[in-house]
Fold this sequence. Notes:
Strand content: 15-25%
Order of helices and strands: EHEHEHEHEHEHEHHEHEHEHEHEHEHHH
Largest sheet: 7 strands, parallel
Structural class: alpha/beta
InterPro entries: UDP_GlcNAc_Epimerase_2_dom, WecB-like
GO molecular function: UDP-N-acetylglucosamine 2-epimerase activity
Distance between the termini: 17 Å
Radius of gyration: 20 Å
Helix content: 40-55%
Pfam families: Epimerase_2
Number of strands: 13
Oligomer: single chain
Keywords: Isomerase
Protein name: UDP-N-acetylglucosamine 2-epimerase (non-hydrolyzing)
Number of helices: 16
Strand order of the largest sheet: 3-2-1-4-5-6-7
Shape: globular
Amino acid sequence: MKVLSVFGTRPEAIKMAPVVLALKERGDVESIVAVTGQHREMLDQVLDIFGIVPDYDLDIFTPGQSLTDIAVRSLRGLEDIFKTIKPDLLLVQGDTSTVFAAALSAFYHGVKIGHVEAGLRSHNLYSPYPEEANRKLTGVLANYHFAPTESNRQNLLREGYDDKSIYITGNTVIDALAYTEREDFVFDDAALNAIDFKKKKTILLTCHRRENLGAPMKRIFSAVRRIADEYDDVEVIFPVHLNPKVREIAEAELGGAKNIHRIEPMDYLPFSNIMARSYLVVTDSGGIQEEAPHFGIPVLVVREETEREEGIVAGTAKLVGTEEAAVYENIRLLLEDKNAYDAMAKALNPYGDGKAAERIVDIILENQKEGGGR
């Protein structure tokens, strides 16, 4: 059986790596990896961590690329790959422009599609943008929906998908964390190594989403700055996204604070180890909402809606919006109220047990034997 795995960004690579490694262990599968390079440097870092060498690299990245650029270059490059290798199944993960382009290309070539991390929904087509549209469009084309949770399955059922095509697997990001967490990890940045993570309350901040650019991001950063100025025992670590607009706002709102460490984007390995040592995460990311609970770290989600509803329901994450007062008060609460903190830190992680990739490969092979899928 030929299985083609396609991904293009760092988050996709992190979550697809365990599946690629699980496929590699099976003697009855020919596993082929193609990357678009939608992200370049960040993607390569993850490939190095997991020891994955792509069979095909479209290398589409260009500075200032538009969503149209990504989709068109991916479609053109993947067309040749599909014609050359004629896979039995395409595997994609998540909701990037690479994911939708790859699914569309597979559809054009009559290849079945497996969608890893299927069924996530914010129920707002424009937030996150363009991810909500990408995952819904990919779902329309997919034959196999690998849903991390029961809530994801219910989303798909409400949209009319056949329950026989939906499989609850857990999230592969939990599998990936097993490859990265190291108690003796040493950071390249001396300032990070100098932080006493046991005595300091370290806040890990990430913020980059398109819908937060401008006034929402200014409000978020202003709230974090107030916290940093008011609490001597707080250290803020902020890997600043490469987007010049993010950097401009970060400089204006966070510049000059001694206990706010604005650093360059981190490789996945040091980033996951920083997260494991943090007291609290403030983020507009999607994946971090799943990762941090694995370490017992509360997550404050600075967005107006989230597709990771399970974390909100379980209590591992809290959706606080982007208003300065709400962000400030929710951070302050977790710094000062041990009961509120423990309620989140000790909540059960709803995203799985670290065996999602193994389940996905088992399902693929079983369906191959039975001739399953539409």
